[in-house]
Amino acid sequence: MNMKRIWNHLTTTERHVRKIFTPTRLEHIAHTIKASETQHSGEIRFAVESSLELQPLLQNLSPRQRAVEVFSDLHVWDTELNNGVLIYVLLADHAIEIVADRGIHAKVGTTYWEDLCKAIQASFAQGHFEEGAMNCISAVSDKLIEHFPHDGGGKNELPDTPVLVG
């Protein structure tokens, strides 16, 4: 049991999320996602969680495992072409995870997503939260445009608004 991790989760609150991801920033993220989805048939979701509850912490739930749960809860897997992508931020762990559905993951691969997570983490570590989020959305969009270009007839299958989990 990692006491430092538990302490970080107990002391990181939704107030931290609201301070970093202000309504203006969240609106900008939503607008960026909506604009990107006019260029491809994929779906991008952005979710931020302040911390985990005590039970998952005691079970040593990893940020990746939590991201997969959120991916499922938000139905990101439920797109016609299996090309949904979740960008998940867990503030207490300073963790960013990208979970991509099988359609886009098969074309892009694990290394790309891992490298992208490292880049956004570096940006966040410098306090550049909005810039890091925008760069990540842009990089995800680039891959969706490359592999799933907009065919002109697609519909928006999932909401573009960022989700504050918790």
UniProtKB/TrEMBL annotation:
<dbReference type="InterPro" id="IPR007621">
    <property type="entry name" value="TPM_dom"/>
</dbReference>
<dbReference type="Pfam" id="PF04536">
    <property type="entry name" value="TPM_phosphatase"/>
</dbReference>
<feature type="domain" description="TPM">
    <location>
        <begin position="19"/>
        <end position="142"/>
    </location>
</feature>
<protein>
    <submittedName>
        <fullName>TPM domain-containing protein</fullName>
    </submittedName>
</protein>
